[in-house]
């Protein structure tokens, strides 16, 4: 089954149209295969843009407001055109960002969320291609051309960022507008077989996978980010003395979960009592000696009630740094985080996430051996 999934995802140059014959009865979205860059921990998607046969490699940013890349990076497309400052596309880009300039071209501020830098970019339009070689499909999309130096801190070979946030100009928002469907986003991260889709979990993975999800409300985050609320945190079943609720921002550009310093201090004290500590290994503060991940206490995030919990354990919790030492993949994020908790890629891996933006809900469910078959495209 897994080999069939790999062939399906990668045979069409990384962008696959959801069609009757390929996945389900839905015609409402696209699927982007995603792989993890081992050096940075970032997740890379590839898209076919314009009339070039070369795919554009983009870092997936769950909070990013738009798709942007370095248009001078060798990706040449004769169908690419700049968007005028008086166009409706520029007005969409302007919503929520007063720094958009409506001159002859539409200049706007483009952000690299991985390292927290920004630059002026130019809004452009081109054709996004998807589908099989025998049955291609296209749709016009807006994106930004950004200067080369904005690529700093991105994975090697990445040419830009695939923004998946709530902004009107993000790719999920644009594709939802084209299909007149409510906005949905399905995310499944792994080292080699990840998926980002603008369709629902049911459309991509089938009914069984969809019914296995647990849902929690989505809150309004800054700059279009996806945020959930946590009422309490437990280590090894014991509740920490941290006042809730705490907002948790989900991030694909942060490799490990970050806690605000005051929260981390309480968390670290509790975890040190529950495990045998070893010498720290940067960037981690809490490292332990053990032969397997199962020796370590789980971390539970209680959501809208104590009955609804997101459990973090095993490979989602510990990082093997060698020498029989494993470090906790949860770090001190300092005192100036936008949210008290930013959940990083390691903690999101292996979970199927359904961002139901029409109902402001997030569904989540972990892939296990007993459910792995239901988390593959139905027809494969």
TrEMBL record:
May I ask which residue range the UniProt record assigns to the signal sequence? 1-18
One GO BP annotation is: proteolysis
Q: Which Pfam families match?
A: TAXi_C, TAXi_N
Presence of keyword RNA-binding:
no
* Gene3D superfamilies documented for this protein: Acid Proteases
Q: Does the keyword Signal apply?
A: yes
Gene Ontology terms for molecular function: aspartic-type endopeptidase activity
Keyword annotations of the record: Signal
Where does the Peptidase A1 domain lie? 43-365
Similarity annotation: Belongs to the peptidase A1 family.
What name appears for this protein in its UniProt entry? Peptidase A1 domain-containing protein
Q: What is this organism's lineage? A: Eukaryota, Viridiplantae, Streptophyta, Embryophyta, Tracheophyta
């Amino acid at each position: 089954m897994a080999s069939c999934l790999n062939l399906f995802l990668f045979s069409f140059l990384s962008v696959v149209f959801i069609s009757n014959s390929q996945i389900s009865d839905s015609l409402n979205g696209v699927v982007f295969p995603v792989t993890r860059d081992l050096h940075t921990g970032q997740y890379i998607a590839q898209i076919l843009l314009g009339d070039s046969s070369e795919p554009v490699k983009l870092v997936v940013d769950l909070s990013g407001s738009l798709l942007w890349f370095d248009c001078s990076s060798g990706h040449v497309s004769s169908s690419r055109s700049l968007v005028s400052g008086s166009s409706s596309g520029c007005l969409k880009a302007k919503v929520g960002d007063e720094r958009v300039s409506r001159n002859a071209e539409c200049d706007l501020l483009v952000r690299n969320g991985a390292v927290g830098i920004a630059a002026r970019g130019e809004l452009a339009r081109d054709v996004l291609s998807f589908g099989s070689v025998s049955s291609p499909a296209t749709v016009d999309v807006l994106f930004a051309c950004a200067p080369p130096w904005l690529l700093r801190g991105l994975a090697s070979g990445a040419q830009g960022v695939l923004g998946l946030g709530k902004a009107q100009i993000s790719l999920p928002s644009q594709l939802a507008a084209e299909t007149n469907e409510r906005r949905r986003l399905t995310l499944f991260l792994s080292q080699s077989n990840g998926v980002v889709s603008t369709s629902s979990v049911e459309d991509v993975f089938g009914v069984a996978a969809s019914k296995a999800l647990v849902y929690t409300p989505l809150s309004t985050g800054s700059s279009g980010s996806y945020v959930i609320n946590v009422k309490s945190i437990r280590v090894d079943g014991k509740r920490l003395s941290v006042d809730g609720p705490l907002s948790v921002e989900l991030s694909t550009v942060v490799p490990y979960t970050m806690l605000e310093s005051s929260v981390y201090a309480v968390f670290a004290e509790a975890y040190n009592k529950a495990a045998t500590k070893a010498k720290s290994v940067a960037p981690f503060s809490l490292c332990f000696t053990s032969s397997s991940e199962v020796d370590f206490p789980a971390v539970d995030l209680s959501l809208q009630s104590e009955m609804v919990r997101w459990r973090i354990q095993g490979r989602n919790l510990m990082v093997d740094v060698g020498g029989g030492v494993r470090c906790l993949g949860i770090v001190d994020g300092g005192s100036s985080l936008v949210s008290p908790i930013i959940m990083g890629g390691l903690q999101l891996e292996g979970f199927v996430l359904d961002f139901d933006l029409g109902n402001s809900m997030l569904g989540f469910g972990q892939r296990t051996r007993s459910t792995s078959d239901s988390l593959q495209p139905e027809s494969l």
